[in-house]
Design brief:
Length: 132
């Protein structure tokens, strides 16, 4: 008498159940993943704004005049390079504020006083990135 060989493998029902479980897990994980990416971009934006503002203040105090552009900060050695705006993914999208007011008695020429993101999106705190 000959032994009957059994076939190994998954049934169609087993495969459908596994695919359904994977679909549910992916559906639950995607919003968390997107939120983590947005949080990381916002943290990078805060850090970049702090770095740019510190460089603007240092330039203004050292040179006794405000920088006329962000490129002045790079050319004078206050920054290695202009950072990329994490929200717009562009180095050219930074919005600068200039003022004619002098912030110190020694200051001879006004220039850039602040910098903001060029993005029109709203942050997780409800404020537009352009107002950070």
């Amino acid at each position: 008498m000959r032994k009957r060989e059994t076939q190994s493998g998954f049934t169609l029902i087993e495969l459908i159940i596994v695919m359904a479980i994977m679909g549910i897990l992916i559906t639950l994980a995607i919003p968390s993943f997107v939120g983590a990416i947005k949080h990381a971009q916002e943290a990078a934006l805060r850090e970049d704004l702090q770095t740019l503002r510190t460089a603007i203040d240092s330039y203004t105090m050292d040179k006794q005049k405000g920088p006329q552009s962000l490129d002045d900060l790079v050319q004078s050695g206050y920054l290695r390079a202009i950072p990329e705006d994490p929200m717009t993914r562009s180095k050219d999208s930074w919005v600068t504020d200039s003022s004619e007011a002098m912030y110190s008695l020694d200051e001879t020429d006004p220039g850039i006083t602040d910098v903001h993101s060029g993005s029109s999106e709203t942050g997780s705190d409800g404020q537009p990135y352009s107002s950070w």
